Amino acid sequence: MKYLVTGPGGFLGRHIVEKLLARGDSVRGFARRPQPELEARGLEMRLGDLSDSSAVLDACNGVDAVFHVAAIAGIGANWNRYYLTNVVGTENILNGCLKSNVSRMVYTSSPSVVFTNYSLENVDESTPYPKSFNAHYPRSKAMAEQKTLAFNGRQTADGQTLSTCALRPHLIWGPGDHNLIPRLIQRAKAGILRRVGEGKNLVDTTYVENAADGHIAAMDAMLAGTTSIPAGKAYFLSQDDPVNCWGWIDQLLKIYHLPPVKKTMSFSVAYAIGAVYDFIWSLIGRESDPPMSKFLAVQLSVSNYFNISAAKRDFGYKPKISNAEGMKRMAEEADKK
Fold first, then answer.
1. 2-171+207-238+306-319: in CATH 2.40.110.10
2. Annotated catalytic residue within 137, 207, 271, 305
3. Is 82 a catalytic site residue?
4. Which residue, of 117, 134, 212, 290, is most buried by count of CB atoms within 10 Å of its CB?
């Protein structure tokens, strides 16, 4: 089998590439920059932008299946960037699959596509998309997820049926993360990290290797064509072990020899501050993540954990690395620095 992985240099994309190469698969990556370390291990690279349909088509030619992982994340970019990369880029990948006779695609979505301003506790995939979003990222991911699932069952140029599914891993973490955990550490060192709300909210997380295993398991199930294939569906992925959000953050801070979060802020104050930052960032067109936003205020104060029974049933997903083992590996990495 030959796979295309978009975003092979990203945290999750890299782990998917490494696992595919380790089991002997042929892998092509598509990104804006070369990936010399992975290329040295056998990755074939195509360079380009997801918004460039011709570059995407070239990347899709000659592969059997696609893992579409790349996206603009965070909360600070303007809508145009999110739309071009996350929505138009996903549509380009889907059309590239049809034109290049690629019959399988797994799309990396996000639980934020169903987030509201209220807690989501043990919810499953029947949870509807909200009527409105309080950030560009979840809106763009929801649009891309819907496009992905709408393409399921369409015919490729040579008459094959395209099968697609969307996976929603929550809070991906682990050694080598250059996004979530470094931002937490930076804010803690700067003294601006605040506990928002009562500090009792439970959240799901996903260790990066478990997220990668879930993607590969979903793809293998679609390629096998079993009766429970995940084609046309969205799935939550997690550790299947919700944690107290602020207790988990304190554990991470301890690994880096930092004190626990002691200062607090009410949700209403955080949300009001977030609204101000959202307005200012939109007004001046700033691209970096703001110190607070409405979306972030909600995420830090409400519970978000999910029922992953469907992923277990349909493609045998099982998180192999526990929270405790993941934290142990994080500590081992930190000790090396």
1. no
2. 137
3. no
4. 212
